[in-house]
Design a protein that fits this description.
alpha/beta; Rossmann fold; six-stranded mixed sheet; two-stranded antiparallel sheet; 10 strands; Class_I_gatase-like; DJ-1/PfpI family protein; transcription; transcription regulation; INH-QAR
Length: 302
């Protein structure tokens, strides 16, 4: 079982912590269990909202597949907030050096910066801290006014609720966007927000509606987008006519038919495979096209 280790500092914001914890906790309900662990330099960590939190004080043994996440804390400036001891900063560096992913929410980026993990990388943080952190870490590149940024297994997010977006993004990267869409829906996060990447998944981008019939059809397409899915098959699964399905699907997704939606999923998956070194022909067949011609047409059209 993979672990998510939350590093708690005094004054931690509850939503910075609870949002990602809820995402990874909900993933277990969909077949991807995570062990959630809460560590701190003190056994009791006061939160910004007054609720004391209990933490393990021993750093756990970690695998490169595990995630270490530093939630933010209440502090008007980066200079005046709490900080990790040098030994714990070294553990953040060691986990990343071993191939692990390190993430932060809001002012948690300060801990990553002090550990040297922002140098040479792009990052973001809460808009009120951007200028100060950029000045303190001139070797890092600040990306302003985005929800989250990923750079070489260092993932930073903006503030408070953006930790949910960050965690959903990490689920999508690890297990596929279909799982992230199911978790978002279970959490009633229908308006799943994108990060800085323009190619954020169509599975999530077109889920900002409340039509349960369309959600059920999208669930089916998400799980089987590489297979032939005739409109009649989708309509039967939804319990409506083909004409009704086309009408409600187009209205809910902002103009997409089920076929166009499926093609977007295939295109995005193919683009990912090509980005990982696959040949265009191989990527095309993997996502369900008979050959690369349709994939090339869709890429050119986009």
């Amino acid at each position: 079982m993979r672990s998510v280790v939350f590093v708690l500092l005094p004054g931690v914001h509850l939503l910075d912590l609870a949002g990602p914890a809820q995402v990874f906790g909900t993933a277990a309900d969909h077949g991807h269990p995570y062990r959630l662990r809460y560590v701190g330099e003190r056994a009791t960590v006061p939160s910004a909202q007054g609720l004391p939190l209990t933490a393990e004080t021993a750093w756990p043994a970690l695998d490169p597949a595990d995630l270490v996440l530093v939630p933010g804390w209440r502090s008007p400036t980066a200079r005046g907030g709490p900080r990790l001891g040098e030994a714990w900063e070294a553990r953040l560096r060691a986990h990343h050096a071993a191939g692990g992913t390190v993430a932060s929410v809001c002012s948690g980026a300060q801990a990553l910066g002090r550990a040297g993990l922002l140098d040479g990388r792009r990052f973001t943080t809460h808009h009120e801290l951007q200028d100060e952190l950029a000045a303190r870490h001139p070797r890092a590149t600040l990306v302003r006014d985005v929800l989250f940024v990923t750079d070489d297994r260092v993932v930073t997010s903006a503030g408070i609720a953006s930790g949910i977006d960050l965690a959903l993004h990490l689920l999508a990267a690890r297990h596929g966007p279909a799982l992230a869409a199911r978790v978002a829906r279970a959490m009633v996060v229908y308006a799943r927000r994108n990060g800085h990447e323009p190619q954020a998944s169509a599975m999530l981008r077109h889920r900002s509606h409340l039509d349960d019939t369309v959600h059920r059809v999208q669930d089916l397409i998400d799980a089987r987008f590489a297979e032939p899915l005739p409109l009649a098959t989708l309509a039967t699964a939804a319990g409506v006519s083909e004409r009704t399905l086309t009408r409600v699907f187009t209205r809910a997704t902002g103009g997409l038919t089920p076929l166009r939606y499926q093609q977007r999923l295939r295109l995005e998956r193919a683009e990912h495979l090509i980005g990982q070194g696959a040949m265009v022909e191989t990527a095309a067949r993997t996502v369900g096209f008979d050959d690369a011609r349709m994939l090339r047409r869709l890429r050119a059209r986009r």
